[in-house]
Amino acid sequence: MIHHLLISPFSDQQMLRALVACLALSIGFAPIGIILIMRRMSLIGDSLSHAILPGTALGYVSAGAMSVGLMTIGGIVTGLLVVFFSTLVTRNTSQKEDTSFASFYVISTAIGIILIRLKGGDEEVVHMLFGDAESIDNATLFLVMAAASFGLTVFAIIYRPLIIECFDPVFMRVSGARGGLYHHIFLGLAVISLVAGFRALGTLMAMGLMLLPAASARFWVNSIGKILLVSIAIAAVSSVGGLLISYYTHVPSGAAIVLVAGGFYLVSIAAGNNEGLRKKLLKSRRLHG
């Protein structure tokens, strides 16, 4: 019975490709999600996930179908353009970085939805926004795995200065290190990862798998290495659970995966050993008991 419910669906080639893609995303998303949270850039990350929509939509409109190559290039270009213009506004005006990113993401989302709706129908809009993991083909799977491998490699190279900047940006400036360069490399990695994940998770839901496992992991462990491992584990289990929910209920895969990850987050808030509600209540009882 358990085998039939949990294992049999992945004997299907489409489901198996979806699973491998989501597991690769779970590994590739984890370090980026951790840094976004540590640097309090969650809203900026969410803005980037929306920023890729007009580019992927333009690729779809140009090809008249779900072209992996055109949609990937379009998503990366528009994502990087939003990074460029948001940074330009932040450096040359009094507006904060999160506000400029949020402003451009709203514009990007509107453009993307209009482009998709003009060429396609409601089904295409749903797939672009909320994901369709079961439609992943070999080309998309290769793209996801390549993006995850590339992201992890670059992250390993810039890991040390990136972490130092998170905890001590003043030291980076005083020592003459180019913190801004690493910041923009990191944003570029976030864009590439989100573009790789949009097919499985959708442009609106990709950020969920990037942030929720990392946010959940921080309620259980302290060190960055352990947070990374726990985050990957939560993302992987969320992927499996979400794909099974999508398979049996026919809801969008991205929404189902993020829903499971959201469940982990709520449980972590309530029961986490590291400053979760249960731990705080126990401390309060000891102090007043």
* SS content category: mainly alpha
User: Helical amount among residues, as a percent range?
Assistant: over 70%
Number of domains: 1
Give the quaternary arrangement of the chains. single chain
Tell me, rounded to a whole number, the average pLDDT: 83
Which geometry do the CA atoms define? globular
Textual characterization of the structure:
- The chain is mostly helical and 289 residues long.
- The protein has one domain (12-288): ABC transporter involved in vitamin B12 uptake, BtuC (Orthogonal Bundle), CATH 1.10.3470.10.
- Helix content is 82%, strand content 0%.
- Helix 7 crosses helix 10.
- The model has no long low-confidence stretch (mean pLDDT 83).
Q: What is the structure about, briefly put?
A:
The chain contains 14 helices and no strands. The chain has 289 residues and is mostly helical. Helix 2 packs parallel to helix 8, helix 4 packs antiparallel against helix 5 and helix 11 packs across helix 12.
How would the blueprint of this fold be written?
Layout lengths: L1 H6 L5 H26 L3 H10 L1 H11 L4 H25 L4 H23 L2 H9 L7 H30 L1 H6 L4 H23 L4 H12 L6 H26 L3 H19 L5 H12 L1
Labels describing this entry:
289 residues; ABC transporter involved in vitamin B12 uptake, BtuC
